[in-house]
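TODO from last week: model 2-isopropylmalate synthase.
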Amino acid sequence: MGDRKVIVFDTTLRDGEQTPGVNFDKETKYKIANKLVSLGVDVIEAGFPAASNGDFEAVKYVAENLDGVTVAGLSRCVKSDIDRTYEALKNAKKSRIHLFIATSDIHLKYKLKISRDEALKMAVDSVKYALGKFDEIQFSAEDASRTDWDFLVKVFNEVIDAGAKIINIPDTVGYAVPKEFGRLVEYVKDNIHDRENVTISVHCHNDLGMAVVNSLSAVESGADQVEVTVCGIGERAGNAALEEVIMAINTRKDYFNVIHGINTKEIYSTCKLVSEMAGIELQPNKAIVGFNAFRHTAGIHQHGVINNKATYEIMKPEDIGITTDHISMGKLSGRNAFELKLKNMGFNLSRDEVNIAFKRFKDVADNKKVVDDEDIREIVEDVILNSKSFKEGELWG
Ligand SMILES: [Zn+2]
């Protein structure tokens, strides 16, 4: 038996769109969805069809025009939502309804104002009603991490008996901690019916900055599917970032021993597209795709990276599709880094020219925190020009 495969369920177009201030129209959703297909996600949650006419149209459009991927739509456990979701997804190559209802006492009492039994009945009735209308039925117990574990398992078992093949454990409010969340996944795994044929999914939020670690802990505990968004965008502090979960699994495959269908070389361009479309600038120190993620500033680090990248880089920028050298030049940069930079920029200077250029570079760096490629180009061109006229002067003299 080979390594276990982790299914990547991308919800950039649904939970990601719940980022404050973000609104994707039909064309934008389609554009991002296409990119997600190239990236290799298994499921795209395109939206919440019953939420608005605009979103209904967008989900329908994505479902009708996308190949090679399962398209999911979110739905409350009410008939009208299920009907609407069916209308939006009926022409998809492969459709999945994502039914959800809250199961924690705090949500039941103050939000839905119904009892546990009533919630359970709505969940089961909805799965039964959805049966046959979609290729797959996924059921989410909203606020699962704050739900009584026995009640949670009871709900899961009844929806599984009714026909749901994917059960999702959301940490809706970002409350879980990694070990505890892993234990919850194990508890569910050990107590659900038909484990062999049921996919266990997790959906983590980042309110305490733990969406990615909680997702990874769940994978370690046997979760089959992770729900993620590109760049971690989403409601409040966002969701687990696809690129972080995937690169952790990749970089530490010795530890996780799982595989996935993501083409990591598409990560950088996908993140760029989504941050552009969402109008969200990524923090410079963002893991994996932040502007500084592969920049080395300290001279000793730069020296190490030039001799062997593995000294300070656990991943290669090329792995996520970045092609520049990303060596940031500043006053702490040594001669080795400078020479590599020249080489990467295509300059081939004599020893003397490098000496002069390096001196100038140091002068510039004293007054500027980051010396960019343009600055270096100017310095080099100036040096070449001067040394040429010097040589020409010699010839004439
Ligand atoms: Zn969510």
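Done. Strands lie at 4-5, 7-10, 43-47, 70-76, 95-102, 136-142, 166-171, 199-204, 225-228, 258-259.
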